[in-house]
Design a protein that fits this description.
With 95 residues, this protein is α+β, with helices and mostly antiparallel strands. The protein has helices at 38-49, 53-64, 68-85; strands spanning 2-5, 9-14, 17-22, 33-36, 88-91.
Length: 95
């Protein structure tokens, strides 16, 4: 599965707090601010590098010394939540 970050959404860390911010280009489609924990911020930063779920899981498994199978449920909950809030969307796969 591939995901695309909504144009205008940025992750900033302020005073140790990870915040997703919807700028003018995206604030009509998603919440203006969403706080993320450290793991979710790691997922987001990886999502900025690669849109592929499998690559995201591989990077997280390496960072947290877990298997991809252990990472996938939490990663998928994160992706589902971000999609529901409007911060990301699934990309259609080419046939």
């Amino acid at each position: 599965m591939r995901y695309r970050i909504h144009s205008g959404v940025v992750l900033e860390t302020v005073c140790g707090e990870h915040l997703l911010l919807a700028t003018r280009a995206s604030c009509a489609d998603c919440p203006y601010v969403q706080q993320l924990n450290d793991t979710a911020a790691f997922f987001w930063r990886q999502l900025e590098k690669t849109p592929e779920t499998e690559q995201l899981a591989r990077a997280a498994a390496e960072k947290y010394s877990l298997s991809e199978a252990e990472i996938l449920p939490g990663l998928q909950r994160f992706l589902d939540s971000m999609e529901e809030l409007g911060y990301i969307r699934r990309e259609e796969e080419a046939i």
